[in-house]
Design a protein that fits this description.
Endonuclease III, domain 1, Endonuclease Iii, domain 2, single chain, mainly alpha, elongated
Length: about 220
């Protein structure tokens, strides 16, 4: 099966399973989404959603969060991975947003990626989910599944993003990146997964990939 044909079938299955995929990180505006996505690096979404209510209470804009010191931000997010580094990044980016962007989150990739702690994946999530701009953020779930399904060679997340944008229509990118994440969490884990019985892997994965996964899982 060719990649484009395979992608169309995958998009159909995911669309039926998750017709209106929600953003898994709780937020109320572009700023809180930006901070939540930044916090989610090497931390589960569930953990981020536990710490952000207290952090965002009274500090749901860059201007308001500028009232907090770096140390105070750290106290709110201490249970997140890489907390000291993230607290420093949030402290700095709030000041940049206020001083250079009028306190607003910029709606362009270049400005977002120039902010402390904000890489291409974080910028892509914000552009897609806060501003509705077509983007295909690639996290570990998407990179892993796209490789399993033979939609990319898995050499890098950059190559995966490029390959996925080629086989999926642009108007579906924003939903698909969430749908793939949800499918990976619910049906397609990294370890001890039987590809032969998976509703997508069973026909999308190559025979070589199925054998490799079976050996990895000791089967």
């Amino acid at each position: 099966m060719k990649r484009l044909e395979k992608a169309q079938k995958i998009a159909g299955i995911l669309g039926e399973l998750y017709p209106n995929p929600p953003v898994p990180l709780d937020h109320s505006n572009p700023f809180t989404l930006l901070v939540a996505v930044l916090l989610s690096a090497q931390t589960t979404d569930a953990r981020v959603n536990l710490v952000t209510p207290a952090l965002f209470k009274g500090s749901d804009t860059a201007k308001k969060m500028c009232r907090l010191s770096e140390k105070q931000i750290l106290e709110y997010i201490r249970t997140c991975g890489l907390a000291p580094r993230k607290a420093k990044a949030i402290y700095q980016l709030c000041r940049i947003l206020v001083n250079e962007h009028g306190g607003e989150v910029p709606a362009d990739f270049e400005s977002l990626e120039a902010l402390p702690g904000v890489g291409h994946k974080t910028a892509s999530v914000v552009m897609a989910q806060a501003f509705g701009v077509p983007a295909f953020p690639v996290d570990t779930h998407i990179h892993r599944l796209a490789t399993r399904w033979g939609l990319t060679n898995g050499k890098s997340v950059e190559k995966t993003e490029e390959d996925l944008k080629k086989v999926f229509p642009e108007e579906k990118w924003n939903d698909l990146h969430l749908q793939i994440i949800f499918f990976g969490r619910e049906f397609c884990p990294a370890l001890r997964h039987d590809l032969a019985t998976c509703q997508i892997c069973s026909w999308a994965a190559t025979a070589k990939r199925i054998r490799e996964e079976a050996r990895k899982n000791g089967k």
